[in-house]
Amino acid sequence: MKTTELPRWASGFVLPVLNLLSALLVSALVIHLLGESPLESLQILVNSAVVNPEGLSYTLFYASTFVFTGLAVSIAMKAGLFNIGAEGQMYLGGLGLTLAMLSFDATLSAWLLIPLAIVASALFGAGWAFIPGYLQAKRGSHVVVTTIMFNFIAAGLMNFLILKMVPEGDQNPASRVFSDAAAIPQLSTWLPFFGENTPLNLAFLLAIVALAIYWVAVSRSSWGYKLAATGLNAHAAHYAGVRISRTIIVTMLISGGLAGLAAVNSILGSTHYLSLNFPAGAGFIGIAIALMGRQHPVGILLSSVLFGALIQGGFDLSLEKPNIPQETFIFIQGLIILFCGAMENMYAPAFLKLINAARSSGSKG
Amino acid sequence: MQPAVEFRNISKAFGPVRANADVSFSIAKGSIHGVIGENGAGKSTLMSILYGYYHADSGQLVINGAEQKIRSSQEAIALGIGMVHQHFMLVENMTVLDNVMLGAEGGFKLSKKRAETEAKLREICTRYHLDVDPLATISDLSVGAQQRVEILKQIYRSADILILDEPTAVLTTQEIASLFDILRLFKEQGKTIILITHKLGEIMDITDQVTVMRAGRVAGAVATRDTSKEQLANMMVGRPIEGNLPRKPYQPGAPVLQVDGLQLKDANGVQLLADIGLTVRAGEIVAIAGVSGNGQSELMEILSGMRLPSAGSVTMDGKALPFAGRSNADGLPAVFRALGIGHVPEDRLRDGVIKDFTVMQNTVFGYQDRVTKRGLFDFDAIARRCAHLLEQFDVRPKDPNVRIGLLSGGNQQKVVIAREVSAAPKLMLVGQPTRGVDIGTIESIHTQLLRLRDEGVAILLVSTELEEVRALADRIVVMSGGRVTGELPIDEFDTTRIGLLMGGMHKS
């Protein structure tokens, strides 16, 4: 029997892996041209990002941020909204968190302070996404355009605000360091395996919880069903009684809230202060993660870990191999996005033929 | 004389579906050859193979005596094969001339070629009585004229074998007549015409030979003069078609839907509906007859809550439908559904289903909040209900997890009807229930609607097919230009009178 559609295991697993390998192959070629051994480089990368426990904990630390930005982009994508603004929403989430900290870190205990900061980051992120969501729902202004603009507005606004927060006499464009009460528990406290002084923290568990909630909401609830209907065919969703504009606004609020939550890991887990441009592209990586993970929670988690590993491993690689610049990570990341996003179905026709050939020979034999 | 086209043992499969299985027949040069069959019978696939869109898995294609492998539509055109699609392939804001030249510009400088082409077009138009101005813009042309442009395009590219896919679906009676005149002229000039249609009347009118397809195979091949509509219909479906479906005697109950003075203006102030008044009572089917685009769609949208009226009163069971105090219809269809209004929308793929959802997901579409426990789907109950509906309404395949977009139009429609009927509505709005649906399925859909009527549901039907109106209606309301132009009981059914009312002749 012939098939015209790839089975789920193929489109969901084999194709992404093939795409990923292609990206790595091209990266290997470039590393070879730079005069280094690709195999050795891969070994260094894997060792540093996965095998070494401390390295692994860094990988998972980066991944925690990416899970949130990846979820933010994914949930909007489910509703047919391309939220390019996770970067700005995360930035604003950091502002919310910082304002909560600066106001209360001297008075409140950690038990109150940290939840408060988490809520504040989500609220600020959501607030920043509300305006594009509202404009899309009520005025038809395309979220792609508005969220891009809001990234720039966020950057300008934060420039202005952070410079106001710099403590007197300090040269660093950042707020003051929060008090010890603001430190989020490190996972290494309970899992000494990861080694001391790694930034992996409670936010990783929060990310896992968020993935689980996302899965239930998107694939088990009527809310997620209406969301997907709106994304796939707004005409039909209207027919089915979905309140389209409310769905758009609520989705953007949740998307922005998730992006805002990404700041918890970056700031509370590591720096403990708000610094200029702290998201450092995590919001944009969220787009790649949503595309590569196909908005599926497991896919989002795996892609987040992959990108985390690339950052961690790429950093060590550039330290050990002077010929390989630090920007190599950005280059590999670009290749992955190219192969997994833009050309995700490149191998589909060939693979389909292969499956059909295998089936027909199987049925003959 | 050797045939123009010969199909030899053509087979083509899409996944588990065998679209064409061992199809063999030939088309005589200089004839009009009809290819008929239900939706999904494999007509379009076969023509797509001839036109180079698909490649046959096996079999040969012989054009004018030589075996050909047609790998693309360019190669088909080079062999003198032209196709007029059901949906026109024209650039709306370009002129006829530019549309014809598109893809055949013949060089960097357009002006010279344009003058040549224009002269040639005028010559073709005169020769074949194609009344088209080469310098007119497509969007200014009527549907019939746009179709003539498509034909012109094929002739210009020296097509000798012309495939027409459901050419009359969008035409008025007069336009059909003039199209047929053109086709007869082509035949006289020695061109070969392949007419794909499901309208048996047209086959009888114009073709010389007919090939009937069923389930991917040739079910029969006859000379038109030796056959009849009935025989063709039986060949198409594979069994005799019932004439009149059984129904209970007409005993309408209390009025369910009452519409009075309904008005609708669009954003530019254009009057789409004017002073519509009608009543639908329990246990009757009121059919709105009319040419498509005369306000029926807008009326159904209003009654289902998808659109707000500008003025007028709409009541159900004596209570006004909740239009008042709203600035838009966002979410209103859910309210109407809760009041017991079912709706089979006329554009199934735009409104009625989500193509990328599974059949099971589509069986709760619109009712998604009724199948939950604390906000989460009760998947067991949904699956049970779905299995029951697929069985009861004979949806094929009976696979709840297949994407509905992969089903045939008829089976998609069965899912929509199953869903709306099973919600036990008091009022059922049904728009074009059998558009793009094959004959066998039409019968099953009609049976379901009549059963609903016999159970006492008030049904408002919109149909552009008078056959369907006659088969289902207890009363007929005719609409034209956004107004009700007449109303008559079914026993006064009279095609001429309805035709005049549809054309806007007011009741006198």
Describe this structure in words.
The complex is a heterodimer of chains A (365) and B (508). Chain A has 365 residues and is mainly α. Chain A has one domain. In chain A, 74% of the residues lie in helices and 0% in strands. Chain A contains 14 helices and no strands. In chain A, helix 5 packs antiparallel against helix 6. Chain B has 508 residues and is an alpha/beta fold. Chain B folds into 2 domains: 5-237, P-loop containing nucleotide triphosphate hydrolases (Rossmann fold, 3-Layer(aba) Sandwich); 255-502, 3-Layer(aba) Sandwich (Rossmann fold), CATH 3.40.50. Chain B is 33% helix and 26% strand. Chain B has 17 helices and 22 strands. The longest helix of chain B has 19 residues, at 110-128. Chain B is globular. The relative contact order of chain B is 0.10. The interface between A and B is medium-sized, with 28 and 37 residues.
Per CATH, the superfamily of the largest domain in chain B is P-loop containing nucleotide triphosphate hydrolases
Count of structural domains of chain B: 2
> What is the makeup of the main sheet of chain B?
6 strands, mixed
List the domain count of chain A as a whole number.
1
Oligomeric status: heterodimer
Distance between the ends of chain A: 14 Å
Q: Compute the gyration radius of chain B: what is it? A: 25 Å
Radius of gyration of chain A: 22 Å
Order of helices and strands of chain A: HHHHHHHHHHHHHH
Got a strand count of chain A? Answer: 0
> Strands of the largest sheet of chain B, in order across it?
6-7-8-3-9-10
Please report the first level of CATH classification, the CATH class of the largest domain in chain B. Answer: Alpha Beta
Going by helix content, strand content and strand pairing, the class of chain A is mainly alpha
CATH architecture classification of the largest domain in chain B: 3-Layer(aba) Sandwich
The poorly predicted ranges of chain A are none
